[in-house]
């Protein structure tokens, strides 16, 4: 509904009398905005999984720790963990492997979301510096 109103507003803003009637342009613009909204919603639903707050699946996901990582994943990621601090490793595991957003990581480890975001920033900086050093040396 809101996307239809938004499309009508855009049509009103962008309308050019020399290119045709307003009703035709408005119809096309509203249709475009509604289809765009449907496409975005569909993509979002395809990429996200919903759990009930009391589901055992959610509980098991929230209780994952570095020990729960498959040995093959640990081996694959070990070169990236080497230069990282324990907090940076924690962020890498929770975000990159468990696909947890910063707010979920913060809640799980009783820290602020800003702290988790700083771990992310430090991890990126450490990995960037390590990659440059490895490239120069190796």
Automatic annotation (TrEMBL):
One of its GO terms (molecular function) is DNA-binding transcription factor activity. One of its GO terms (biological process) is DNA-templated transcription initiation. InterPro entries: RNA_pol_sigma70_r2, RNA_pol_sigma_r2. It comes from the Bacteria. Residues 4-41 form the RNA polymerase sigma-70 region domain. This is RNA polymerase sigma-70 region 2 domain-containing protein.
């Amino acid at each position: 509904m809101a996307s239809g109103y938004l499309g009508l507003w855009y049509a009103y803003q962008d309308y050019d009398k020399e290119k045709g009637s307003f009703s035709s342009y408005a119809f096309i613009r509203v249709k475009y905005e509604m289809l765009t909204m449907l496409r975005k919603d569909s993509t979002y639903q395809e990429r996200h999984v919903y759990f009930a707050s009391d589901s055992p699946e959610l509980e098991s996901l929230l209780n994952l720790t570095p020990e729960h990582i498959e040995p093959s994943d640990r081996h694959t990621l070990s070169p990236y963990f080497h230069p990282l601090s324990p907090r940076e490793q924690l962020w890498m595991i929770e975000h990159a492997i468990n696909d947890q957003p910063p707010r979920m990581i913060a809640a799980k480890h009783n820290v602020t979301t800003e702290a988790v975001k700083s771990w992310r920033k430090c991890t990126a900086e450490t990995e960037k510096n390590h990659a440059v050093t490895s490239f120069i040396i190796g």
